[in-house]
Amino acid sequence: MRPDFIIVGLERSGGHWVTALLNSHPDIAAFPVDYFVLGKSRIGELHFFNTIASVAEPHREHVRPFEDFAVKFGGRYADLVPLRGKVSDDELISRFAKRYSEICEGERGSKKIVGELSSRYVLFMDWIDKLFPNKKKICIIRDPKDRIVSWYQKKEVQEKGSKEMMVPREFAVNYTKANVVPEYEALLNYDGSLHGVSYEALHKNPVPVVEGLLTYLDMSYSREIVEHMIEGATFEKQTERHEGRARKLGEAAMSPMRKGIVGDYKECMAKETIKEVDAITKDLEISVHRKLMLQ
Fold first, then answer.
1. What is the predicted pLDDT for the residue at 239?
2. What is the pLDDT of residue 74?
3. How far apart are CA 110 and CA 122, in angstroms?
4. Per-10-residue mean pLDDT for the chain, 295 residues long?
5. What is the 3-state secondary structure (H, E, C) of the chain?
6. Which pLDDT score is estimated for 189?
7. Which of 49, 175, 201, 294 is 20 to 30 A (C-alpha) from 68?
8. Which among 197, 183, 171, 200 has a CA at the least distance from the CA of 263?
9. CA-closest candidate to residue 224, choices 212, 239, 235, 211
């Protein structure tokens, strides 16, 4: 059953960048490359595992409500939703898993393998293994302080129109405790197949990182293919999909795609906030990097 691999996150860490890289390989399909836009046919993050978990674990932290299947994800599950209560939970979950597999197969096209990204899957890898055993998983790791800045820009500046560009201490600490810490703990507690990618290493020296991804996926490559993948996943190339042209001057205020800058937090967080976030995350971050053998 499809998919062949799953990109499990982390949130605001460049998952769509990794997806675009892999999708630029001639034998690999990875999605979503585009963000979902209402009324258009392209598919966004499916959030399958963190939604289907609601059938058995409705009160689990970070789980999405089952009702999302009826109104989100481009309506691809909507016809299955009325089955709830008419078939057993096991049968219901099996039907949804089959549909998820069919969606992935459809996105594969003529390529050899296909993978899907949803940024919160890192917290639901037990469900991935339950429904699709032995699937390879990829996780991109990024400095949590830059992740906080990216999330703040999205939620407060882009969506709410805030003019305050400095991340408030409370926002930073709350995001760290509610999101970063659980994700790190999930990675440390997981013993299945998992390949880690460093966001910072991908910025600094992308060739060996991309080669490592392809080796993990057992896919052949040449230097020309790797260079093609890197070029195909550039911010300028990816933003062409949204506006029909490259966004030469960087990020548009309301763009769902951000050109993440390594060390952006130094300009957007107070020194005291930086120290507090580091105090919460540093030991966990070191352990995660050590486990995933990241530089």
1. 59
2. 85
3. 28
4. 96 94 97 62 83 98 97 92 98 98 96 96 98 97 97 92 94 98 98 96 96 98 97 74 45 48 92 98 97 87
5. CCCCEEECCCCCCCHHHHHHHHHCCCCEEEECCCCCCCCCCCCCCCCCHHHHHHHCCCCCCCCCCCCHHHHCHHHCCHHHHHHECCECHHHHHHHHHHHHHHHHHHHHCCCCEEEEECCCHHHHHHHHHHHCCCCEEEEEECCHHHHHHHHHHHHHHHCCCCCCCCCCHHHHHHHHHHHHHHHHHHHHHCCCCCEEEEHHHHHHCHHHHHHHHHHHCCCCCCHHHHHHHHHHCCHHHHHHHHHCCCCCCCCCCCCCCCCCCCCCHHHHCCHHHHHHHHHHHHHHHHHHHHHCCCC
6. 97
7. 175
8. 200
9. 211
Query: For residue 46, what are its two tokens?
Result: 């499916």
What is the reported pLDDT for 246? 40
Q: Which of 24, 48, 26, 46 is nearest to 35 (CA)?
A: 46
User: Rounded to the nearest 10 degrees, what angle do helices 206-216 and 223-232 cross at?
Assistant: 110
CB count in 10 Å sphere of residue 37: 12
Residue pLDDT, tens place only, 37-47? 444 545 689 99
* Predicted TM-score of the model (pTM): 0.90
Q: Which domains does the chain have, with CATH numbers?
A: 5-291 (3.40.50.300)
Closest CA to 162 of 271, 3, 268: 268
Question: Can you give the pLDDT at residue 295?
Answer: 63
Q: Please name the amino acid found at residue 207.
A: V
How many angstroms separate the CA atoms of 47 and 121, rounded?
A: 7
Q: Using CA atoms, how far apart are residues 168 and 13, in angstroms rounded to an integer?
A: 20
